[in-house]
């Protein structure tokens, strides 16, 4: 006698499961969905700008989240970073007051930038006075997962700069940046 309620309950569960399988697509259409949701739905971005589910069906495009990088200040309160400039690692000081990315002569040589004295045509006002610089264009600057292409820069002559500067010609192409209690947050 005790077995009958268990068998009856299992029968009800089985019938409910079969009904759900048979009526699932109809119910999904009724509530406005083309397909019943799947527990293992994976969405990836495709080059065409649409999103594809694991089953290969086209869905609504959701843009990827922009990369965010947090940089801690050093003991002097400076933000020193090591971006990859045209696939070469350069030590730079983040300088929100510098209008351009400024490279030391040594960093420019390491990047393969060859300049003659006649290339230094640009007059720049710095904290140490006026100096001549050579305007260059950097193909790409990558800082963590943030990538910025076609960055205007200037190369300063030997001895004019102790460390390269990451200025607003890079920072201005980001979605934003802010300083919060000893850390700088960059939004790619």
Structure description:
By secondary structure, this protein is α+β, with helices and mostly antiparallel strands. It contains 3 helices and 15 strands. Strands 6, 7, 9, 10, 11 and 12 form a 6-stranded mixed β-sheet that branches.
Rg, nearest Å: 29 Å
CATH top level assignment of the largest domain: Mainly Beta
Stretches where pLDDT falls below 50 for ≥5 residues? 30-55
CATH superfamily (homologous) name of the largest domain: Acid Proteases
Strand runs, count: 15
Q: At the third CATH level, what is the topology name of the largest domain?
A: Cathepsin D, subunit A, domain 1
Distance between the termini: 69 Å
- The assembly state of the depicted protein chains is single chain
CATH architecture group name of the largest domain? Beta Barrel
Mean pLDDT: 80
The secondary-structure class comes to: alpha+beta
**Content of β-strand:** 35-45%
How do the helices and strands follow one another from N- to C-terminus?
Answer: HEEEEEEEEEHEEEEHEE
Number of distinct helices = 3
Helix content: 10-25%
